Amino acid sequence: MLDEWQGGGRTEPGVRRTAAGFRTARIVELGGLRVTDLTRSAIDVARRTHFADAVGSVDWALWRKNGRRVSKQMLTDDIYNLDKSLGRRLLERVVAFSTDLSDSYGESECRAVIHLLGFDAPELQVEFRDEQGAMYPDFFWRSVRAAAEFDGKAKYTNNEYTAGDPGEVVWREKRREDRLRRQLSGMTRILTSDVSHPDRLVRLLEDMGIPRGRRS
Fold it and tell me: What's the domain range around 17?
């Protein structure tokens, strides 16, 4: 299932031998190993890192295409079983922000950085339709009718997505973007390097007129 989470390379949250508050953790068998369940494992991964990375781990646990997905309520209940010294406040913030609509780790991290930079929250996977069918941009800001796509490297280099023809992927993406642009006031692509250098991300979003009122 992790292979379906585009931009992988991260450790699957469900495979862990140790956990925060182990005495209250639920244990399951996975691949012949006794491990903490996905709820506690996602929490344990999230509490060991910063906000943007933590969102990626929790979004994966909630992902609507994850066959072992959990609910926000399950995550919240497990957090309250932890000692306050184990970062409950950060975890509560991460879970409140998390979503089941993010289709990759990079997309989750990008959304978290957009939030930390103080820009208005985008809507996710909003449907746009034309004579060729439906399209779902990663991020959409309705107030300015602008959209953005997170453009991770895996889309163009991983044979799982390119089927051996990255040029065809690039061409399909261009045609899809042209179709979207006809229905939007602004459209941009956000690269992994933009997320790693937030000043670039700020310029991209400001150039599209995305409202920015709060700074975290």
Answer: 2-106
